[in-house]
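Dear colleagues,

As part of the handover before I leave the project, I'm documenting each prediction I ran so the next person doesn't have to rerun anything. This entry is a single chain, and its sequence is reproduced below.
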Amino acid sequence: MNFVRAGGFPNYFGPQRFGIDNANIQNALKLNERRVSKNLKSIYLSAIRSYFFNEILSERIHRNIHRTELDGDFCLKAKDFEDNQFMLDYVQGTQDKSFFLTGSLLGDNRPEKINDIGLLENEIISKNRDLFNIIKCNRMQLSQRLLIIKPMNLSYYIDLDSICIKFDLPSGAYATSLMRELFKEI
């Protein structure tokens, strides 16, 4: 728990984003074959972007570069942490430790990059070209998401035969991802 408290945890999208047995991804692959409501379409498209984000973050962790700024990375500067609300500015490349690394939520306006992060993203995209083509065909805008999240007010207590874990997360972070990291330590 102390490791996560001090260093944060990978900001993966949780499994609920992808549906049971990755159904949202499978349904996204069929978007051109059938009509769906705008709401369902939005869910499927978000699942694709989330999938790419998770894959890129996973590869960064595998290469042990998830806490290392790469050429081409965007960083966010925290201006205000009051009341657990992150007010963030985008900053291109910095070694300043008050900045936080982000990963791309891919969009059709993604620039072709020949820098380190662009090459890594291209590797993941090339393995999933059909999914990326859906992003390109649906006019999704590129955006960024923090790679690592630090939970606030993380604590726990043991009561007879149970453990109670308390924490606060910023909007968009998944408690299931935090719990997975915490249980790795047990």
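Residues 80-91 have pLDDT under 50 and may be disordered. The longest helix spans residues 38-62.

All the best with the project,
I.
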